[in-house]
Amino acid sequence: MRVFTNLLFKVTLSSMVLTAPAMTSLSHNDYPNGKLLMKKETATSFYSAAVIRNYIDHPVLEVRAMNAPASVLAPAVAAAPAGAAVAAPVAATAPLPVAKTPAALPVAAATLRAPEPMPVSRTLERTSAKAAELRMVINQASYIYASMDLNEQGLDPKAFEYAWRGYHNLVKKGLIHKRAVLSICDFSQSSRAKRMYVIDVLHRKLLYRTYVAHGQNSGDEYATSFSNDPDSYKSSLGFYVTMRTYVGHNGLSLKLNGVDPGYNDMALKRQIVLHGSSYVSAKYMKDYGELGTSLGCPALPSAVSGEIIHVVKGGSCLFIYHPTPQYLDNSSVINS
Prior knowledge:
Layout: H1 2-19, H2 49-57, H3 70-78, H4 107-110, H5 120-147, H6 157-172, E1 181-186, E2 196-200, E3 205-210, E4 238-248, E5 251-258, H7 267-270, E6 273-277, H8 282-288, E7 299-301, H9 302-312, E8 317-321, H10 325-330
Parallel strand pairs: 1-8, 6-7
Antiparallel strand pairs: 1-2, 2-3, 4-5, 4-8, 5-6
Helix pairs in contact: 5-6
């Protein structure tokens, strides 16, 4: 009796499990060709052969997601009992859209490449060539400085070296149209010294050496502070290219174009010009104890300003020097 009761319980439990799928609302998209394996209204025996075939022996495979080929499905279909209603192979249906992987991208997209880095050998060659050029320019500066006895004239050798480096780079860029003349204001010197040098680099001659004033907010006897800001009333360091002349309230004057970005490229807006003034002379120093200062312009003695302006106008190079590391290390003209 106990054995019969256990057998009846197992058969009842199995019937409940087998009939569970028939209680689910199925859609025509769940199986191929819109054919449902079981309809809700069909009265099928709990443990009939149809239920067993459909839910036990039928190979329900999730092949849509991986889009399996028919060759994979064939063994499963062949394994179904003879005469059983087997669902059509899933491979016969249209595959669901599959997200493109990098391998599925068009060939044209795959051929796009990032720019190839410059070969190390070529980079080293350029670095070596630049270093060799710099050594050549420094050697030229040293030779010219010594051959002209500029040390005897009070010009700082570093002032001339940096001036020559910047002059060389500006000539290469085609910014200097009057190459025979190079002018240097050596603001490492006291304003009491004749610290303006006009050099004929073609014939290696010092054409002029005279006084030059700095901006009134750059310092008193020595210039120690510099600015590119408008209304700062300070001198601006760096390289200038001389432009055209005009006559203003300081007489004959020469426009200067600052070509050192960040250091003097506001010169035209600030109206920084080369001009003569009565407060730049030995007499003025004798009367007032020191040289006068400007609003930022490199002012010259009135007695020689006209001559110097005519010599340097029209595209020559003017360099205002001071041993300020921040400028010397970052000037794009010196270090280009």
